[in-house]
Each structure stands twice: as C-alpha cells, then as structure tokens.
C-alpha cells in the first residue's frame, strides 16, 4: 500500500517535472490524474503549491531596462571595430611595401644621384603605404 | 552542427539579401529573423547589427547582472559581449541559434570576470557559495512542514544569492528567461542530462533555503 502511494507521488512529481521543468512554453496545467492525486495527497499538494509559487515568482523577477546611453556606447564600440582596417585582406602588400621602403632607404647612400633617387622612391613607397592604409579604412567605412 | 551553413554560403546569401533589401527600414529589419540580420551584418550593413543589439541587450544585461550583481560590471560585460560577438560573427553558423551563442559569450565573459576579480566582495561571495554549511537549511523536510509558504521577490532574490553563481545562472536561464534545456546546455557547454539533473537539485535546494528563511 505504502509502495503504491510512493509510486503515485513519484509519478505526480515526474508529471510536474515534465510540465514545468523541461521545455519553455505555456503551462498546460495539471493532468486529471495529477489533480486527483494532489487532492488526496497532502504532501504532494503542498510540494506542488510551493514549487509552482517558486517558479512563477522566478519568471516574474524584475528585469532592468538597458539605458539608451549604454546602447549607444555598445553601438559606438561596434562601429569603431567595424572601421578598423583589416590587414588580413592584404596579406602580402603590407610586408612587401615595408621591406621595399626599408631597402630603398638603407641600401644606397644619400650623396649621389642614385642615392637621392632611392630616397625619393623610398618616400614614395611610404606615401603609397599610407594611402593603402587610408584606403583600407575608407573601404571599411563604405561597407 | 553538421547541417549548419558554411561561412561562404552565409556571406553569399548576405550579399544577395543586401542587394535585395534595398531600402529596408529599421522597422522592416526588426521583423527579420536573427539569421537574416547576421547575414546582412556580414555583408556590411551595420544597421542590422544594431537591431540585434537592441533585440538582445536586455536579456544579456539581466543575465550578466544576475551573475555579477553589479550594474557597472553588467554594463561592461554587456558591451564586451556584443563586441566579441561582432568580431566572431563570421564564425557563427546561421542555422544555429544566435541567442544561446550570444549568451555563451556573455556567460564566459561574466565567469572570467568573477574568476579574475580579486575584490573582497567576490571573494567572500565565492567562499560563501563553495559549500558553507550555514547556507544549507538545517533539516529540509521538517522545516518545510512547519512554515506557511509566503514568497516575495526580495526573499527569492536573497535565496538566489546563496546559490553558487553557476547554479543561479542555470536556474535563471531556465525559469526567468525561459530557455530550453538544449539552449542552456549550449550556453554553459554541458550535456542536457546534466542540466536537467542540476535544475532538479537547484529547485529542491532553493525550496529548502526559502523554507528556512520563512521560518526565521
Ligand atoms: Zn503524493
């Protein structure tokens, strides 16, 4: 007799678990069999009432609204991130430009026409490099 | 995960959507599904990400606040979450759900902050939560039978604070924010069966803690 009562209690609580524990969505209510058991079992009736109240109260816990200032802060941070140049799009151009500019600036001396020319080319490479970086940034802004 | 689209497919679809979207207003975009907004964002439409931010910022903020119990920290982690998500958007698979993916980033950021924090408040909270017997009701069954059950938000809030942050997090994801077991499993990176068993224990533990508080 006691065992069958325990089984009924276990089934009732399992039913509750399925109804309130497992998946989100509207509460489908206690089954007829469950209601019958809860009416006759003081322990399960009390247990279910307390559990319902705990879960209902949890669902109704107050939530904070996000201030618009924080939203704007998030959006500004994302925008800054979006505008950052992504050098991964230019895997070879940047290192080659730096190596080229460094070579031109260091290999030839400054006291000859070739030297002046190499410095000129080096400076031009630097200007191109700067333009390249600006272009990447502008490209990101345009997207 | 095997059914998830590849990044190339997502981007290509995004380009198509961008071309097709033409003059979509913000109101139009608010009606789009997460996956469509992500595809548009990946194809360069920043306004689509704003819609995603506005759609999920309250959820992220409140989930993180319950972990950290500080508005300042919650604001920082919320911002960090959306920034990290934006950076990693290209690795997101559009057939997968965005909400658990985002909450997973938020959860990891929040847990990192708790872990890294050397503040006295967090230290004492952690030590309090790591098995301090004083947090447990003296004798659950007897206590429960003696008290009249009358629950308030404040009482529940205090009881939740006595749970380990991870347990509080799982409980609130399920019962405050209505996530499914599968979604929670994805957020905290644990099997659904573990979540189910954890939630069962957490509910019973909370009930006992509350009964004890009602008695005193
Ligand atoms: Zn019973």
What does this protein look like?
The complex is a heterodimer of chains A (143) and B (216). With 143 residues, chain A is an all-alpha fold. Among the domains of chain A are: 2-60, no CATH class; 106-143. Helices cover 76% and strands 0% of the residues of chain A. Chain A has 6 helices and no strands. In chain A, helix 1 crosses helix 2 (32-40), helix 1 (2-22) packs parallel to helix 3 (42-59) and helix 5 (93-107) packs antiparallel against helix 6 (113-142). Chain A is rod-shaped, with a radius of gyration of 36 Å. Chain A starts with a helix and ends with a helix. Chain B is 73% helix and 0% strand. Chain B has helices spanning 7-21, 26-30, 34-42, 46-68, 71-88, 98-116, 120-129, 140-146, 153-161, 165-175, 181-188, 192-215. In chain B, helix 3 packs across helix 4, helix 4 packs across helix 5 (71-88) and helix 9 packs across helix 12 (192-215). Chain B starts with 6 loop residues before the first helix and ends with a helix. The complex binds zinc ion. Zinc ion binds at residues 8-9, 12, 37, 41, 43-44 of chain A.
Keywords:
heterodimer; A: 143 residues; mainly alpha; 6 helices; disordered C terminus; B: 216 residues; Rna Polymerase Sigma Factor, Chain: A; Arc Repressor Mutant, subunit A; 12 helices; elongated; binds zinc ion
């Amino acid at each position: 007799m006691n065992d069958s009562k325990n089984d009924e209690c276990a089934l009732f609580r399992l039913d509750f678990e399925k109804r309130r524990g497992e998946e989100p969505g509207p509460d489908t209510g206690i089954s007829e069999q469950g209601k019958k058991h809860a009416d006759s079992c003081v322990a399960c009736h009390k247990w279910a009432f307390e559990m319902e109240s705990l879960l209902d109260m949890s669902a109704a816990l107050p939530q904070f609204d996000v201030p618009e200032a924080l939203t704007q802060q998030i959006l500004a941070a994302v925008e800054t991130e979006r505008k950052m140049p992504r050098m991964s799009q230019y895997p070879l151009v940047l290192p080659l430009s730096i190596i080229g500019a460094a070579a031109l600036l260091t290999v030839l001396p400054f006291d000859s026409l070739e030297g002046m020319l190499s410095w000129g080319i080096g400076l031009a490479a630097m200007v191109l490099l700067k333009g390249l970086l600006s272009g990447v940034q502008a490209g990101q802004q345009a997207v | 995960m095997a059914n998830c689209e590849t990044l190339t497919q997502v981007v290509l679809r995004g380009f198509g959507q961008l071309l097709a979207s033409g003059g979509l207003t913000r109101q139009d975009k608010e009606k789009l599904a997460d996956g469509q907004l992500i595809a548009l964002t990946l194809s360069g439409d920043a306004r689509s990400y704003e819609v995603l931010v506005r759609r999920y910022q309250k959820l992220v903020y409140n989930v993180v606040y319950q972990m950290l119990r500080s508005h300042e920290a919650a604001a920082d982690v919320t911002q960090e979450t959306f920034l990290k998500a934006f950076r990693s958007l290209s690795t997101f698979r559009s057939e997968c759900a965005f909400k658990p993916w985002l909450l997973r980033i938020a959860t990891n950021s929040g847990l990192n902050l708790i872990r890294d924090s050397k503040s006295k408040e967090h230290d004492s909270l952690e030590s309090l939560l790591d098995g301090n017997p004083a947090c447990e009701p003296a004798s659950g069954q007897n206590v429960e039978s003696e008290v009249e059950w009358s629950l308030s938000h404040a009482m529940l809030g205090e009881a939740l604070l006595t749970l380990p942050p991870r347990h509080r997090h799982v409980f609130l994801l399920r019962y405050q924010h209505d996530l499914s077991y599968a979604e929670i499993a994805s957020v905290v990176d644990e099997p659904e069966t573990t979540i189910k068993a954890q939630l069962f224990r957490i509910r019973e533990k909370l009930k006992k803690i509350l009964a004890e508080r009602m008695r005193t």
